Amino acid sequence: MKAEKLRGKVLSDALLERIKKEVALLRRPPSLAVVVVGNRQDSLRYVAVKQRTAAACGIRFHLHKLSETVPEGLLHRELRRISDDDAFDGVLPQLPLPLRFRVRPALLCIHPGKDVDGLHPLNAGSLLLHANPTYDEADQKSTLTEKGESLATCLLNEERYFIPSAALAVHALLFSYLEKTAAAALTPPTNRRNLHAVIINNSMLIGVPTAALLQREKNFIVTLCGRFNDLEAVKQVSRHADILVTALGKQRVVTADFVKPGAIVLDVAINEDSTAGGKTPSGRRRLCGDVDVASVAEKAAAFSPVPGGIGPLTIAYLMQNTLKAGLLAEHGINCSLPHFASAQEGAM
């Protein structure tokens, strides 16, 4: 039997509908400012999707475009100016930046309370150092939400930092599937212990925060691999994974040889598909992930397709982070994490 396709659209549509309802209740809609440097076409297309999604939720979207030739100092000043403006709740530089720009100094120019990408070192560190809830406590929190807590209440009660949306998307899609299969087998999720998760990506955008979220559950053994590891060695490790998350950025590199029978495979990569001239019959760009679907679907229990898997959920969780920033601002909750000023000064 072929593997089940884990599509993110149902979950993302439900989340976006909840966000839209909460936005309508605010005194003013949350606002998201995106700074784009240069004219990289894939980045501009991705920003356009963010803009359409924000509009559908009632979130104000502000695009700030800078030439690729601007001095790095001007980019930093623009990010600080936007971050200091109370009109904007969320601020992010669209990544990747052109090669001559350093990412870390740019991120340090954004207030951590407006860093809806969750990449500022103080947000990333807060996630890694956060006290881990037990799986049972996580279940209880989920149950409370289902009993009537609004999304706004949940966001106001949770931690005062931001988690990268791709990691939140992986977590949501994975646990949606685990809960569904547990219910079908009449097995409580709390009985599922020591699942081995292998993540083929060690970036602060995907791999590291995803590992941190899974480790918070206290029932995962997590292995992180990266693009600089030998691919054959990665294959030997991934063959033992109950859950395989990949964002290597190489089309169809993850074949059935990487996959344990019955594993859950989540593909976070978005690659240009070179087959058939890289275009669909209608002339649109053809995309694929890291996973060779033809072979993996015969061996895995479930996999997320590209496009249509993790992608829609990633943007939905970016909108949720923006809503969270707007809620905190409206309620006068200060997200100014300790030592922000000194960290910012060190980047100048």
Radius of gyration: 20 Å
What is the mean predicted local confidence, pLDDT?
Answer: 88
Beta content: 5-15%
The H-level CATH homologous superfamily of the largest domain, spelled out, is: NAD(P)-binding Rossmann-like Domain
The overall strand count is 11
Adjacency order of strands in the biggest sheet: 1-11-8-7-5-6
Shape: globular
Classify the helix fraction into a percent range. Answer: 40-55%
In CATH, the topology of the largest domain is named Rossmann fold
Order of helices and strands: EHEHEHEHHHHHEHEHEEEEHEHH
Instruction: Work out the count of structural domains.
Output: 2
Query: What kind of sheet is the major sheet?
Result: 6 strands, parallel
- CATH class descriptor name of the largest domain: Alpha Beta
Number of contiguous helices: 13
Structural class: alpha/beta
- Distance separating the two termini: 57 Å
Low-confidence parts lasting 5 or more residues at pLDDT below 50? 131-147, 338-348
CATH architecture of the largest domain: 3-Layer(aba) Sandwich
Give a quick precis of the structure:
This protein has 348 residues and is α/β, with parallel strands linked by helices. It contains 13 helices and eleven strands. The strands form three sheets. The protein has a six-stranded parallel sheet with strand order 1-11-8-7-5-6, with helices on both faces. Strands 3-2-4 form a three-stranded parallel sheet, sandwiched between helices.
